Amino acid sequence: MDDISPKLQNQIAQFQQVQQQLQQILNQKFRMESQLKEMDLTIDELKKTPEDSPVYKNVGALMIKVSDRESLLREIEDDKETSEVRVKSLDRQEKMLREKYQLMQEQISKAMGSGARPSEGSDDN
Fold first, then answer.
1. Has this prediction a pTM greater than 0.85?
2. From CA 32, how far away is CA 38, in angstroms rounded?
């Protein structure tokens, strides 16, 4: 990095930050989507379970018997809705960061004059 300009060094540092931010967003999105799948399964199972079957809820390290299953179902569906909104927000952030990533990659490649990508092996998910 000694033979490149301070401006280009700064651009590369910013590019690496965007790359890290994008990876963090992708990780958060993956976790949220996994939680959504789990919530869907829980809702399906709760609806399939006979009314007279006991239902339990995790609260910290405890499992507590739930007497009002409709309330529990609404609670899970509300949590699911909140998670869906969060995933949409993460989608927007991902899109914005991917565009910024692409633009910075092109600028750095152009500045280096080689047309080579400044960082190979990045996540293209």
1. no
2. 10
